[in-house]
Design brief:
By secondary structure, the chain is mainly alpha-helical. The chain has eight helices and no strands. The protein has one domain. α5 runs antiparallel to α6 and α6 packs across α8. It is globular and about 50 Å long.
Length: about 190
């Protein structure tokens, strides 16, 4: 049995409630999750408190917490991992923004690094809001954006993760980029 088939089999067992399948799944998906997390964090600010390992673990915990999900295959798992990483990074940005507005913290002088950090938080939050609006119009395009932006997947990796053809992924990617550019520049 190939690794991909083994992962798919374990995911299906886990989806039926077999917790031991999850224990056997971890070593098979861990390196790929860390790679996705590394790519997701590549554009974050230096000194981000979430590191590759923490993001991979958080995403995995979020995924295994989904009760009775009908996992289709390995690709479906990693597409959902991309979505989980997006939500984790957005939640982190929301928490950072709340902290910046006071949150009981001691006031400090802003330096150039803090200004970059603040703009990055606003960028992530604006992108997340725009993706929420796009999802009501084109949910597949949002999945493509999550895979491409939040985990740095290639067109081919995204196609495999979502079960789409590369041509369809390119079409969704092109439309989503144009829509997001227009949406984000108008705000």
């Amino acid at each position: 049995m190939t690794e991909s088939a083994s992962v798919t089999s374990l995911l299906r067992e886990a989806g039926r409630g077999d917790r031991q399948a999850l224990d056997r799944l971890v070593p098979m998906v861990y390196d790929t999750l860390r790679g996705l997390a590394h790519r997701a964090l590549r554009h974050e600010r230096p000194g981000h408190t979430l590191n590759t390992t923490a993001l991979a673990h958080e995403a995995y915990l979020e995924l295994i917490g989904l009760d009775h999900i009908a996992w289709q295959d390995r690709s479906h798992f990693f597409a959902m991992a991309a979505r989980a990483m997006r939500h984790i990074l957005v939640d982190y940005a929301v928490a950072r923004k709340a902290q910046k507005r006071g949150g009981g913290a001691v006031a400090i002088e802003l330096d150039d690094a803090a200004l970059v950090t603040e703009s990055r938080i606003e960028e992530v939050l604006s992108l997340n809001e725009a993706l929420g609006r796009l999802e009501s119009v084109a949910p597949h395009a949002v999945q493509v954006v999550e895979c491409r932006i939040f985990t740095g997947m290639t067109i081919e990796e995204t196609a495999a993760a979502l079960g789409l053809s590369p041509a369809t992924v390119k079409r969704h990617w092109s439309m989503a980029r144009a829509w997001l550019t227009r949406e984000l520049s108008s705000r």
